[in-house]
Design a protein that fits this description.
Layout lengths: L1 H19 L6 E11 L3 E10 L2 E10 L1 H29 L17 E5 L4 E2 H10 L1 H7 L14 H19 L4 E3 L2 H16 L5 H15 L5 E7 L8 E4 L2 E4 L6 E5 L1 H13 L8 H15 L6 H18 L8 H23 L4
Antiparallel strand pairs: 1-2, 2-3, 3-4, 5-8, 6-7, 7-10, 8-9
Length: 353
């Protein structure tokens, strides 16, 4: 089915590509050079060959076998609308980091856009963790407590990620949203109860809940609002020579608390510590550089710590995506995660000695 759709997309791109890249000259061919299967979609990579160079294109095709044809079309419509909105906002302000949509293939259950070239930020973090020389190069701290500059690709990428998210929230800003600490505390209690069934210890739960109550005791009544990506994670951030970019807008919400995206990023970075080879010094540096570039106000930092723990608990509650028959791997996953969350909660929410 996906092969039939990609044939239709290639045919439709023949006229779209000529209009999108007039400086490239005559279009000679559009080639499909590879595809990557995902849980609910495929990513097809194509190259448009012109008389004066080439351009890379990515087509995201939702799987009708997973959600039905109507479901695939609905998801494509949502993501296409989100991508178009953000691209136009960034373009008007001369900002980069959002792929240009190419054509309208929503009714095929597909979203087609320019291919962003680069590496996922998560791959760079892992490289820093696995290569000692790379780690030493980027792990030094500034004497004044602020992130140091000029240390290389890891620090620059973390800063650029913070700057990109700050720009995204600025261009989609929408007044403020109410903040309800009681509702957040109730959600934390539910998550802790769920994680307890997977082995989260009472001592960890006590630190999380008591620390959250203390952190939220004098919290703000409202928080800045904007569009929220919901999946702003190191895996979805592409780092290239021209900076960083985001290509996935499938779960973007039109309005929400901006700080939720910040918390998701910090939690996703911290969660990499569950791997034995991932150095705490590396993840701390990435979080520090990112937060400094984004500019989290001091009044929101206690809330951010609680939201980060909420995101980590959600990851633990969802569990590893493996079959129930693979119980050994499931138990190992739970053991690693509960130890990691205890350490994270102690760092973020435990009272000062």
């Amino acid at each position: 089915m996906a092969e039939n759709i990609i044939d239709q997309i290639v045919a439709g791109l023949r006229s779209v590509a000529v209009e999108a890249y007039p400086e490239r000259g005559d279009l000679r061919n559009i080639r499909v050079v590879g595809h990557t299967p995902k849980t609910d979609h495929y990513i097809y990579e194509m190259v448009a060959d012109f008389s004066q160079g080439g351009e890379r294109i990515a087509a995201k095709i939702y799987r009708g076998t997973k959600c039905g044809t109507a479901g695939a079309v609905k998801m494509a419509r949502t993501e296409w609308a989100n991508l178009n909105r953000v691209y136009e906002l960034f373009r008007k302000r001369n900002l980069a980091g959002v792929p240009r949509p190419l054509g309208d293939f929503r009714e095929l259950g597909a979203v087609v856009a320019e291919k962003l070239n680069g590496l996922p930020l998560q791959s760079i973090i892992m490289k820093a963790a696995l290569l000692p020389g790379f780690t030493e190069r980027y792990a030094s701290a500034a004497e004044d407590g602020e992130p140091a500059s000029g240390r290389g690709v890891l620090s620059i990428a973390a800063r650029k990620s913070g700057e990109w998210l700050r720009n995204f929230h600025k261009v989609t800003a929408d007044s403020s949203v109410p903040f309800e600490p009681d509702s957040l505390l109730a959600e934390l209690e539910r998550l802790c109860a769920s994680c307890k069934g997977e082995g989260l210890e009472e001592s960890s739960i006590r630190i999380i809940l008591e620390g959250a109550r203390n952190a939220l005791a004098r919290s703000k009544k409202t928080l800045p609002a904007s569009a929220v990506l919901s999946e702003f994670t190191p895996l979805n951030i592409v780092v290239g020579e021209q900076g960083v970019a985001i290509s996935d807008y499938a779960r973007m919400q039109a309005r929400g608390a901006s700080i939720d995206d910040v918390a998701m990023f910090l939690a996703s970075v911290e969660a990499l510590e569950k791997y034995p080879f991932c150095n705490r010094e590396i993840t701390s540096r990435v979080q520090q550089e990112f937060t400094y570039a984004y500019g989290v106000p001091p009044a929101e930092q206690p809330i951010l710590r609680v939201l980060k723990i909420r995101a980590l608990l959600s990851m633990f509650a969802q569990g590893r995506n493996i079959k129930e028959s693979a119980m050994r791997k499931k138990v190992m996953w739970a053991t690693v995660m509960k130890r990691f969350i205890h350490q994270s909660a102690a760092r973020s929410l435990a009272p000062a000695a």
